[in-house]
Design brief:
By secondary structure, this protein is of the alpha/beta class. It has 2 domains: 253 residues, Aspartate Aminotransferase, domain 2 (3-Layer(aba) Sandwich), CATH 3.40.640.10; 136 residues, Aspartate Aminotransferase, domain 1, CATH 3.90.1150. Helix content is 37%, strand content 13%. The chain has an 8-stranded mixed sheet, with helices on both faces. β2, α5 and β3 form a beta-alpha-beta unit. α2 packs antiparallel against α9, α4 runs parallel beside α5 and α4 packs across α8. The relative contact order is 0.16.
Length: 442
């Protein structure tokens, strides 16, 4: 039997294996778990994964190259650079701006970077890890994105960059932030890890900043298991991100390739002897944060399903939003930003301070009925133990960020949720409010 025939037979068996190993399960309210997120896949992802494994090309290869090209096209950017996680993508995007090759625009220790305190730690951590100072601006309710009106107040002579996340897929006003950055000579990084497919003014998020990042963790819009990407339209920034991703090397040859510049042994750098092998010349203190072809293969299969995944997230969000209209005296419901079309990551109600039940009571009630909940990530990051000794500058007292910390939670809208699950979530919230209201009224 030929290699091609064997490969075809193996992939056909994978389809049969998937059918038997992952059958559809019946939803039983109160017994079946209702997750906030999860992988959604079929036999195609398993076929792509096995196909890549049969190549036994263990680093980035043909699947990675195809994914980078197709994902960049989807996101409307010139380049997409595959990395091993969304957190690594943030680290690389910020680290690239510390390169001496940027001249006077190089970020240096002590420079300030504007961000938001309400969010996920790895949006902020690269600032600290690079010896920079995070400047924390407050957020708006109920969008839970940065209050753009506070950016001017956040600015100082030491401010050199902005990094902000589109919270739970709801776009912040990236156009206004981009204008502010240009006017003040600041770098601008968009963290789109929760927002792949969200648009603002008809334009895909990720195309407003100098750099953007995404995550392919199983909770996100598509998954590779682990994985992420850095997006940019700037050729110089692309080269710098690749250098920091690939050990800090000066060479830009793809894995398995040599001498694409034609000058491998004809250059001189630093104190190295003339003609030192360019493949072993390092221009940055870099990392090894590459992804594998097997990860990329899964991502490529997922990418074909991304439009459907986004549509399902929007539909599920709408079902929860419509179903909770009669409880707005208890919950502040999340709302899309003006002129935006979010690819929602989650549905985040806030429990009003005068509600008959506390947030803790709400989430304990939901969890006891096997409905998973999450808080809005780190709440107010400056209250977290990890930031106790970090040098930062807050813009005011951050009252809305504290409100997020104390009152907000979120529920899933991912494509694996069924109508029965969503109805069960709504019924559970209504029954809790009815019970608490009756108790308070006694």
């Amino acid at each position: 039997m030929s290699i091609e025939s064997l490969r075809s037979q193996i992939l056909n068996l994978v389809t049969e294996y998937h059918r038997q190993a992952f059958p559809a399960a019946e939803f039983i309210p109160g017994q079946t778990a209702v997750p906030v997120s999860g992988r959604v896949f079929d036999a195609t992802e398993m076929q792509y994964l096995v196909d890549s494994a049969l190549d036994f090309w263990l680093t980035a290869g043909r699947f990675a190259a195809e994914f980078e090209r197709d994902f960049a096209e989807f996101m409307g950017t010139r380049y997409a650079l595959l990395v091993n996680s969304g957190s690594s993508a943030n680290l690389l995007a910020l680290s690239a701006l510390t390169s001496p090759k940027l001249g006077r625009r190089q970020l240096q220790p002590g420079h300030e970077v504007i961000t938001a305190a309400a969010g996920f730690p790895t949006t902020v951590n690269p600032i600290v890890q690079n010896g920079l100072v995070p400047v924390f601006a407050d957020v708006e309710i109920p969008a839970y994105n940065v209050d753009v009106s506070r950016l001017e107040e956040a600015l100082s002579p030491q401010t050199k960059a902005i990094i902000l996340a589109h919270t739970l897929g709801n776009p912040f006003d990236a156009a206004a932030v981009a204008d502010f950055a240009r006017q003040n000579g600041l770098w601008f990084i968009e963290d789109c890890c929760d927002a792949v497919g969200s648009t603002l003014g008809g334009q895909m998020v990720g195309a407003f900043g100098d750099l953007a990042t995404v995550s392919f963790y199983p909770a996100h819009h598509i998954t590779m298991g682990e994985g992420g990407a850095v997006l940019t339209n700037n050729p110089q920034l692309k080269t710098l991100v690749e250098s920091f991703r690939d050990w800090g090397r000066d060479c830009w040859c793809a894995p398995g390739q040599d001498n694409t510049c034609g000058k491998r042994f004809r250059q001189q750098a630093g104190g190295l002897p003339a003609g030192y092998d360019h493949k072993y010349t390092y221009s940055h203190l870099g990392y090894n944060l590459k992804a594998t072809d097997m990860q990329a293969a899964v991502g490529l299969a997922q990418l074909n399903k991304l439009p459907g995944f986004i549509a399902a997230r929007r539909r599920n969000f709408g079902r929860l939003f419509d179903g909770l209209q009669d409880l707005q005296d208890v919950f502040i419901l999340p709302r899309a930003a003006p002129d935006s079309k979010p690819a929602w990551f989650g549905f985040a109600p806030a429990v009003r301070p005068d509600a008959p039940c506390s947030r803790r009571e709400v989430i304990e009630h939901l969890e006891s009925r096997r409905i998973a909940t999450r808080l809005l990530f780190g709440g107010n990051l400056i209250r977290q133990p990890a930031y106790r000794n970090v040098n930062y500058r807050p813009v005011g007292h951050l009252p809305n960020t504290d409100f997020v910390m104390n009152n907000v939670f979120w529920l899933g809208v991912y494509p694996g949720l069924t109508d029965d699950m969503l109805d069960y979530m709504l019924d559970t919230l209504h029954s809790l409010v009815k019970l608490q209201s009756a108790t308070v009224g006694k």
